[in-house]
Amino acid sequence: MSAQSTAAPVRLQDLFEAIALTAEEKTLRQTITPQLGQYFHASRCKLFYAQDLLQVTEKLPAAIRKAVSVEDNPILRYLIQRHTAVHDEIVLPPGVWKTICPRADHAHVMTGPIIHKGALIGGLAFTRHRHDKAFNADDLADLSALCLHLSSQLAILRTEKARAYTSSKSLLTPREQEIAVLVGKGLTNKKIGAALWITENSVKQALKRMYRKLEVSSRAEMISRLTQEKL
Q1: What is the DSSP annotation of 95-161?
Q2: What is the CATH number of domain 12-163?
Q3: Is residue 223 scored above 60 in pLDDT?
């Protein structure tokens, strides 16, 4: 989404407060994210989750698909490996990023981690036009602070949401709930692992634990039970 605006400049402290007052996850995407884009003078900005990458890569043209691929995108790979904010010129020489992503409004890119329950579950991504300045160390410092506040608020929102359930879902950990949702969408263990940035074997072991907790013996039986209880 575009973040260009003629409104008054957004202050970092105002963003911290806005994040803390957010009552729903969708507000982080729909309201807070555009303000973050304005703050960083970004051409585009997005709050994304790990699952988004799997869904998006299957729809985009080959050139853009390459830009959001962990294998081909060193910026995304750096984020996943180190769980820290990064921009293209930290990893690549100036100007090299455009050989990976040819879009004029993606000439400069910066991303930071969203952490929940000790795991990297997504990130904040910003791009700038080729005519704009590249991201710098000050941008990284501010993004790191914002990611801390977002991760903290997201943890609060998800904890509150989890407490509202009294069905079989409450037997599952947040990570197991994510796996169950992806199983329900028909994803294989390999694709679930890719979506959640964990190994295929971790998915298999998690499913075994989930079967024991729910007293079921198959994926279909598990999803049938959870669907009936409105997972």
Answers
A1: TTHHHH---GGGSEEEEEEEEETTEEEEEEEEEE-TTSPPP-HHHHHHHHHHHHHHHHHHHHHHHHH
A2: 3.30.450.40
A3: yes
168-228 has which fold? Arc Repressor Mutant, subunit A (1.10.10)
Q: Which has the higher per-residue pLDDT, 2 or 21? A: 21
Residue 107 has pLDDT above 70, yes or no: yes
Q: Would you mind telling me the total number of residues written for the chain in this entry?
A: 231
The per-type count for the chain, helices as H runs and strands as E runs, is 13, 4
Span 109-129, average pLDDT: 94
The tokens 């709050």 sit on which residue? 47
- Quote the CA–CA distance of 91 and 183 in Å, as a whole number: 35
Locate CATH 3.30.450.40 in the chain.
Answer: 12-163
Q: State mean pLDDT over 146-169.
A: 78
Assigned token pair, 148: 């801390």
Contact 35, 124 (CB under 8 A): no
